[in-house]
Every structure is written in structure tokens, then in C-alpha cells.
């Protein structure tokens, strides 16, 4: 990545304000848990792994000025911040995974002083960021061999460096294949309503000089029918024990289309995006977002007043449509009910 999506810098969590891309590359410094909550809720930082990383820093920021006189008092405050940050967005499990990891670290270090424990929590948040960067590289390595030289890939939303600590998930596979000398070109779905594909994926790929063509979401089937797509690569916000998974709204349609056209459909995600406490996709909470996101484009009303709106931010794709999951531990084949839980065996 030419830029750092999220990092710790001079006592603050520094992020790129992704609502302003591609027109402006502006960094924001988040200094309180409230600012982190707002940045996640309003998609200034977005993408499942990046949300988890920001939340981990947010937890530290939430207790940084604590006056807790005892460990139990501090744990109460930590639990409060965990619940608060967890209320920012419901679907990406990485948010809850990171917050629980932070809470566990606090619990495991009950013998430390408050000052020491705060240091320890900041170190853990930095570790979550570092591990995510390494996971991106490992997913790239694990998936690049699946992409033939000369391939044209279709992707949806933004599953690149902007959605993670760096490098990405679905785009990591593309970056790695390109590093190996393969000629790859990409179609990026624009991804209505918030245009993460047109604004973010296209920006990121163009910065990395990878040929990218933006299409409207409803054009994917036509391209597939013309034989123009060799593989579909997407990320995931929450993957269940059966392989059903949530990702940006529109992913399900792509998976069905890919299956009809016999095009491989790969889901690229770190282990932090799996939630094996859930057996099937119908258990995944799906975020509904404000109607204004559909009613207006850049401040201009495009839907008549008084007309109903439905704005789910994610959909659920059944595992039977997934050719393979690509993780930092390697590729995962069907039957997912067996192979996914195995990933978590010690
Ligand atoms: O609403 P967003 O922009 O946070 O949605 C992001 C996605 O759906 C991504 O595809 C997903 O988080 C995987 S990113 C590595």
C-alpha cells in the first residue's frame, strides 16, 4: 500500500478518512473511544480487519485516562468500552474478535499495575495491527498460484489495503500474483450505495499501477456471459462454521452468477473474520444503514420524497457457492462443515 490505512502515531490512532477518497487523501487522528466509534460508524475507517484494528486502539484510548483504583474497577471500565465500541457496527466479526482479545489480555494480566496494564493493552493493539499485515501477505502467498497469468478478476467492494492493516485480503492475492510477474487486470464493481469499489478499490489499484476497469454492479452478469471474467475474488465480514458468509451487499448475486457461469469464486479472509460459534448464515446480524445513503448521491436527492427505502449493508452467501476460502493458514476446500472448524483446532 502506498499509504497507511490505520496506525498508532504520536499518541493517537491515525486513519485515512475513507469518506473523502478519491478526491482527498486526508488523515485523521482519533484520540478518544468516542472518536473511534464515530469513525467506524460513519465509515471513515471501514473493511472488516481495519475496523477490528481501530477498535483495539479505541479500547486503549477509552481507558487511557482511567482513574481506576483497583483491577476490578478497571475491568468494569474495559467492559464498558468493549460494549460501547461493539455497538458501532454489527456485522464484521473482526470488531468483536479484536475487542474480546483486548479484554482477555487485560484479564490475563491482573497482577500488573494500572499503568503497566495500559502499556500492555496498547502493545496488544499494535500486535493486532502487525499480525493483520502479516496475514495479508500470507493470504497473498496462499492464493496467488490460483490466478493464471493473463487473468481478469472481478472484485466487489474494497477488500484491499484500505480495508486492512495493509495489503488487503482479496486484493492481496492480486498484488502477490502481480509481484510474481503475472499480468492481471481487474474489474471493480462500483458497489452501491457507498461506492467502495469505484472510490477505493479503483484508487488503490490505480496507485499500484494495476489495470482496473470500474463497472456498475448490474453489469457483472453480462461480462461473465461474454467470458470476460476468469475468477471472482471477494473478502468477507463474517464466515460461519458451514462456510456461509456475510460480505458487502451484492456479493450473493455475484456468487450465484459465478456458479451459473462456472467461474471460480474465491473468498479471501483472515482467521479473525471467521465466527465458528455460528452454524449458518441466517444467524449473522446484518447491518441496515441510513436511508439517505440511497436517497442522495453527493448531496443530490435521486429518490422522490416519501418513497420507501431498504438499505442492508451486507448479504449472506451460502457456502455451497464458494470454490475455496483463502486464509493466512492456506486454502480451505469443501466440505466446509469439516474443514472450517479444523482451522481452529490446536
Ligand atoms: O461497509 P464496509 O465498507 O465496511 O464493507 C466492507 C466489505 O464488505 C469488505 O468486502 C469486507 O470487509 C472484507 S474487507 C477485507
Write up what this structure looks like:
By secondary structure, the protein is α/β, with parallel strands linked by helices. The protein folds into two domains: 6-136, translation initiation factor eif-2b, domain 1 (Four Helix Bundle (Hemerythrin (Met), subunit A), Up-down Bundle), CATH 1.20.120.420; 147-342, Translation initiation factor eif-2b, domain 2 (Rossmann fold, 3-Layer(aba) Sandwich). It has helices at 33-41, 48-63, 71-86, 93-108, 114-144, 170-179, 196-207, 220-225, 251-260, 292-295, 336-343, and strands at residues 6-9, 12-16, 27-30, 152-155, 185-189, 212-215, 231-234, 238-239, 245-248, 265-268, 296-297, 300-301, 314-317, 324-327, 330-332. The strands form four sheets. A seven-stranded mixed β-sheet has the order 6-5-4-7-10-14-15, sandwiched between helices. Strand 4 (152-155), helix 6 and strand 5 (185-189) form a beta-alpha-beta unit. Residues 43, 46-49, 92, 157, 159, 163-164, 169, 196, 235-237, 247-248, 313 line the site of 5-S-methyl-1-O-phosphono-5-thio-D-ribulose. 5-S-methyl-1-O-phosphono-5-thio-D-ribulose binds at residues 43, 46-49, 92, 157, 159, 163-164, 169, 196, 235-237, 247-248, 313.
Report the mean per-residue pLDDT as an integer: 97
How many helices? The count is 11
What is the domain total for the residues? 2
Largest sheet: 7 strands, mixed
Succession of helices and strands: EEEHHHHHEHEHEHEEEHEHEEEEEH
CATH topology of the largest domain: Rossmann fold
**Rg, nearest Å:** 20 Å
Low-confidence stretches: none
Strand content: 15-25%
Topology, number of strands: 15
The global form is globular
Q: Hetero groups bound?
A: 5-S-methyl-1-O-phosphono-5-thio-D-ribulose
**Helical content band:** 25-40%
Which structural class is indicated by helix and strand composition? alpha/beta
- Strand arrangement, major sheet: 6-5-4-7-10-14-15
Task: Report the CATH C-level class of the largest domain.
Answer: Alpha Beta
CATH homologous superfamily classification of the largest domain: Translation initiation factor eif-2b, domain 2
Distance between the termini: 33 Å
CATH architecture of the largest domain: 3-Layer(aba) Sandwich
